Amino acid sequence: ENCFKMGGVPWAQVLLLADMYGTIQSPNFPDSYPKDNELQWNVTVPSGYTIRLYFMHFDIEPSYLCEYDYVKVSCFEAPTSFCGRENTDTERVPADDVILSPGSMLSVAFRSDFSNEERYSGFEAHYSAVDIDECRGKNDEELACDHFCHNYIGGYYCSCRYGYQLHSDNRTCKVECSDSVYTERSGLITSSDFPKPYPKSSDCVYRIEVEEGFLVTLDFEDSFDIEDHPEVPCPYDYIKIEAGARVFGPFCGDRPPDRIQTLSNSVSIRFHSDNSGENLGWKLTYASAGNSPQVLHSH
């Protein structure tokens, strides 16, 4: 709405156009237009489209910087006024220009002043809705698809690589990663896809369960990269370790935690990622030391 107000002529009669295509003509076209006339066409198409506008005929009284009669196209950062029969230093005609709106609205205003020295035949313009290909040039991480983007007329949708699921935000791809249980006395655990960037929007739990009497030690490798924040500790992605009543972390950033002596035989490693960022993740080895339960031989 506001772009219609900003670009408009204050006292104009307003015509609303909501079709997918149409024609806009000066009053009385192809005869000469009347003086003292103000009209504004507000074109709206559905979201997912922009508007393409071009002029087939243009003949409007020329004046310095188009201050007498003009056609003004707006809903842009800088509205453009056209007048005259051909381009000069101070007058601009649309000629063969194709005007593309940035969004789904476009305003065309026409004004003629109280006098016309000659007869001018006015203008004829055509507009049509053009599908936006949302999959091209979406650099904004907040809107872009995480893995695959599929454009269709009027919109787009996202899908994920094999082994991933689409998150409820319909944009990021998550993994199911909470059924890993490690029962060997030593082993290796990494974030999903390591050393490639870990999946977004995921909550992973890795459980280490060794026999009672054994205590688990965790050693992170140097290649440690979890999204962090300069002021707030680990607000986005983090790894947290729970061992009995003890909690270690949350950890994030590019420096791995020192060796963690969990003093427990049962350890949960929780890894949370939010819906943005391209960080490479983490890799750890675990070991356990202790005594097997004594087998008592009865004599």
Tags for this entry?
about 300 residues; mainly beta; Jelly Rolls; Laminin; 3 domains; five-stranded mixed beta sheet; about 0% helix
Detail the topology: elements first, then pairings:
Layout: H1 2-7, E1 13-17, E2 21-25, E3 37-44, E4 49-59, E5 70-74, E6 80-82, E7 98-100, E8 105-112, E9 122-131, E10 148-152, E11 155-159, E12 165-166, E13 173-174, E14 180-182, E15 187-190, E16 203-209, E17 214-220, E18 238-243, E19 246-251, E20 260-261, E21 266-272, E22 283-290
Parallel strand pairs: 1-3, 14-16
Antiparallel strand pairs: 2-9, 3-8, 4-7, 4-9, 5-6, 5-8, 10-11, 12-13, 15-22, 16-21, 17-20, 17-22, 18-19, 18-21
What does this entry look like structurally?
With 299 residues, the chain is mainly beta. The protein folds into 3 domains: 2-130, Jelly Rolls; 133-174, Ribbon (Laminin), CATH 2.10.25.10; 175-290, Jelly Rolls (Sandwich), CATH 2.60.120.290. The protein is built from 1 helix and 22 strands. Strands 1-3-8-5-6 form a 5-stranded mixed beta sheet. It has a 5-stranded mixed beta sheet with strand order 14-16-21-18-19, with no helix packed on it. A hairpin with a 2-residue loop joins strand 18 (238-243) and strand 19. The longest helix has 6 residues, at 2-7.
